[in-house]
Amino acid sequence: MTLTPATRALDHTPAVRHTDPATTGALTTYLRALGEGRSIVVRPRAAFEGLKRVTATLTALAPDPLLVTDLHENADLHSVTDPPSDSAAVLPDPEPEAVFAYHTSGSTGSPKCVVYRREQVLSHAQAVSDVLELGREFVWAALPPMRFAYGLSIVNSHHFAGLPVTFTDADWGLPGLEPLLADDDKPLALYALPQHTPLLLASTIPGDRLGRLLIAGGRLSGTSATALARRFPRLQLTNMYGQAEMGPRLATWHGPAGDFTEGLIGRPIPGVTLALADDAPPADTRAGDANSAGEPTSRDDRSDSRPILARSEHAMTYCLRAPYEALEPFAGRTELVPTGDLGHRIDAGPHTTLWHHAGRADNVVNVAGTKVDARRVAAIVHEAVAPLLIGVSTRPGRLGGDVVPVVELVPDGPAPRSTAPIRRALHAEFGSLAALFDIKYVDRLTAKESGK
To answer: Global pTM?
Structure first.
């Protein structure tokens, strides 16, 4: 794969900014280091147990001084030779080229750290730029936090393409977008998470100004897509699927928002192969080929959803998992590996196969000794009340070891006064366990630092 188009953009004036001036120093330092090919680790703003060990490990792995930054207030260089054995994980010889690492959004206080080689960062930025057809006919803005997988892929692809993009906080009313729209009369192209849908629907953005909406980092509901198409009639939607370990982007779908169906992730990006578990051995197919890897299906058979496997030329080299005692090699650049997701193929016409994502394969929680599939909970709730967004999580119960399922719903319109229809629907599936569910309507889903 040639990287010339990406590398020629390294001398461009930094094209990425944030409306929060407090980020300017750290962001400028990051972009300079990125352009110069130096080693970088992007950390969460909130400290976590094990951060010092992660920093020591990556300092020892990198062939050059390591920039550690949260893209907000902290941007520190670390250069340590032969760190004490108890401060770093077991690791191979230092890498021959710069490393690039960041942390997953995680569900606990100890996130996983994914470690890339610079070559993969460049190739992924180029593939994303090509697939998204980044162009100057739009004014580009972004709502996801910069320091996690989705935000960093936006930062890197725009920086290497030399195309300006402005990040802003996802505050109610989206006030950070108002100056952009006032200063430039081009249509808006906006990167967002699925849970930003209520903000968009309630915003003052004129219906004809939002030309593109690029969604990743979660599952966009069919109800949300319909509401967005109604609010912004000219909207072109891009729905992206990926994983922090794999670039992160793996597949994209693009089209009118009104044509979107929930779970549709389209085709693999260049350099990526997708397959289903138990397929015949897949051909080495890539984006733009007649079919995706494996035997194509002749219908949209959602009952045939199976684990999705992926291989990506842009994948990470190592990962560090809590308690960060071993640097684990990752095979996903050369082998098909499980993604932890379920999916199936859709025959969309002659020589056109699209991919459908059916949810996580491991969304099971133990409630009072009974296994409850969070995907099934979400499906039942959606069928009962069709909200814009559904969040299914857990919180500790009153007894040690117990968990309580928490269902948060953002309604498509005024919030109903009662959750009784939802509880009745859950009772039909889970019996008396339905009484244990904490069900509530909210304006916005509860989100972590990653915005998810």
So the answer is: 0.82
